[in-house]
Amino acid sequence: MSSQSSVAFIGGGNMARSLIGGLISRGTAPGDIHVSEPVDVLRDALAADFGVQVGADNATAAAAAGLWVLAVKPQVMRAVCEALAPLAQTNRPLVVSIAAGITAAQLQRWLGGGVAVVRTMPNTPALLGAGVTGLFASDEVDAAGRERAAVLLSSAGRTVWIDDEAKMDAVTATSGSGPAYIFLLAEAMEDAAIAEGLPADAARALVLQTILGAARMLTESGEPPAELRRRVTSPGGTTQAAVETFEAGGFRALVAQAIANATERGRQLSAAND
Ligand SMILES: NC(=O)C1=CN([C@@H]2O[C@H](COP(=O)(O)OP(=O)(O)OC[C@H]3O[C@@H](n4cnc5c(N)ncnc54)[C@H](O)[C@@H]3O)[C@@H](O)[C@H]2O)C=CC1
Ligand SMILES: O=C(O)[C@@H]1CCC=N1
């Protein structure tokens, strides 16, 4: 039976799982969460771990809820939306997409038009409630819809509204993909520490706690990153030797180019999956 307060997840993969975990830990009743997922082991795990309603049919899950979370890959989004269009036209749900690159206009068109669509970009720390999500609302979304989308995503961490949809690809490249950049840095630091002779377990412990400690200083001290860096960097000391090496190697330009390429890939995903 359809309930306006229920949520349907179309696709029950990694991000859906993170968001579902967040919703349940914030008090959403498992019975109010419906998930459609074609892979039976993923379905079974969601039912076992969270007690949510699971099934293989997207329309069945969607028919049960006033809020749809489209959590499939960009490559299958068009087919998924077109199959749900008749239901979208009769039920007029609030539709939240988490897909990289897929625009609100595309979702609108595939769902038959006139549907309230919120395009969002969460990230994987959502699993711990420590994520951040950029949100863009189409014109059809009213204040209550914006509030509902923000509450949904706030179970995964912080939320940031983006007024210009063209900027959503930059959000994807910054915070959506961003955790991977930090993981890459962790890999590289660990490898380097081992190369300097540290045992692997010590290298990992030192690197992980350094990243955690630095992230806490960034978020809790109120100081800008450049000032925090300055305080670690004694003149003529070890940090200066390392930072000068990063700068000489074009570290900032490399980061800028990486984020520019990720932004461009977001635009390409939109065109490739139209
Ligand atoms: N992984 C990440 O860090 C982030 C991913 N995203 C976006 O989230 C979306 C999902 O990504 P992940 O969870 O990483 O991928 P995933 O592959 O883990 O999840 C997608 C799920 O959709 C299911 N699926 C495939 N075809 C389906 C269909 N026709 N109907 C219903 N379900 C279907 C798959 O079996 C899979 O379990 C993507 O659009 C991605 O761009 C957004 C933010 C961050
Ligand atoms: O790599 C991707 O396309 C997705 C979107 C942001 C993070 N993962």
Which second-level CATH architecture of the largest domain applies? 3-Layer(aba) Sandwich
Termini Cα gap: 33 Å
Query: How many distinct beta strands?
Result: 8
* Radius of gyration based on Cα positions: 21 Å
Order of secondary-structure elements: EHEHEHEHEHEEHEHHHHHH
Unreliable spans: none
Count of folded domains = 2
Could you tell me which ligands this complex binds, including any ions or cofactors? 1,4-dihydronicotinamide adenine dinucleotide, (2S)-3,4-dihydro-2H-pyrrole-2-carboxylic acid
Task: Tell me the structural class.
Answer: alpha/beta
| Helical content band | 55-70%
Largest sheet: 8 strands, mixed
Strand content: 15-25%
Q: For the record, what CATH class of the largest domain applies?
A: Alpha Beta
Mean pLDDT: 96
Number of helices: 12
Sheet with most strands: strand arrangement: 3-2-1-4-5-6-7-8
Q: What fold name stands as the CATH topology of the largest domain?
A: Rossmann fold
CATH superfamily of the largest domain: NAD(P)-binding Rossmann-like Domain
Principal-axes shape call: elongated
